[in-house]
Amino acid sequence: MNTGSGDAELEQILEGIGPRLRRLRRERGLTLEALAATTGISVSTLSRVESGIRRPTLDLLIPLARAHRVALDQLVAAPASGDPRVHLRPLHKERGSVLVPLTQYPGRVQVFKQVLAPRRPELVTHEGYEWLYVLAGRLRLVLGAQDFTLRPGEVAEFDTTEPHWFGPADTSAVEILHLFGPRGDQAVVRAGPSTDPTPPTARNPPSTTP
C-alpha cells in the first residue's frame, strides 16, 4: 500500500501549524512570555513550535487552543468532513424555554435560536459581546440601569461585562437569534433588578434596526 501521498499531506499540515500559532499570538498582542504564563509551556518550547523546529503534539496544542480560544481543528487546519450541515438538536431548558444550537464548534462565535419563556430577571456578567435579533414576540433587555423593549426585526449588541438580562417583555414567549463569542456561556450572576412584573416603557434600544 502506497502511503506516500498521505505522509506528504501530514507533513504539510504539521508545517502549517507553527506559522498559524505565531499569527494567532501576534493578532492577540501576546508575547511568548505572556503565552507561556497562560499555558505553562516554556518560552523556548513555544518558540521552537512556532518556528517549526519542534513538532507540535496534543499536549501542546490543547492548552494553546484554549489560550487562543479557538477550536483545535483551527490550529491544525483539519480537512472538512464533507458534510457542512449542522444537525439541529433542540435543548429544552427550564420553564418551557428551548435552545437550538446553530453552530457546532466550541471556541468560536456561537449562534443559537432561542425561545424564551417568561422568567424572573437576574443580571449576569461575562467576557465578550452578545448580539440579539428578535424573530417573534417582544424582548425585554436590562442593561445595567437601563431597560429596553425590542420588537421583531430589532437588534441589540452590547458588552457583556456590563450586568445584563433579557427575556420576554410580557407573559408570552419571545423567539430570538442569539450570538456570543467564546466564554459567552460562562455567566456570573449579579444582583437582580426590581421584580416589578410590568416592564418600563421602551426607550431607544442599543444598536437597533430602523
Report the span from N to C terminus.
63 Å
Order of helices and strands: HHHHHEEEEEEEEEEE
Question: How large, in whole angstroms, is the Cα Rg?
Answer: 22 Å
Helix content: 25-40%
As laid out across the biggest beta sheet, the strand order is: 1-2-3-10-5-8
Strand content: 15-25%
Q: What's the shape?
A: elongated
Q: Structural class per helix/strand content?
A: alpha+beta
Estimate the mean pLDDT confidence: 78
Low-confidence stretches: 183-210
For the biggest sheet, the summary is: 6 strands, antiparallel
Tally the helices: what do you get?
5
Tally of extended strands? 11
Gist of the model:
The chain has five helices and eleven strands; from the N terminus they run αααααβββββββββββ. It is an alpha+beta fold and 210 residues long. The strands form three sheets. Strands 1-2-3-10-5-8 form a six-stranded antiparallel sheet, with no helix packed on it. It has a three-stranded antiparallel sheet with strand order 7-6-9, with no helix packed on it. A two-stranded antiparallel sheet has the order 4-11.
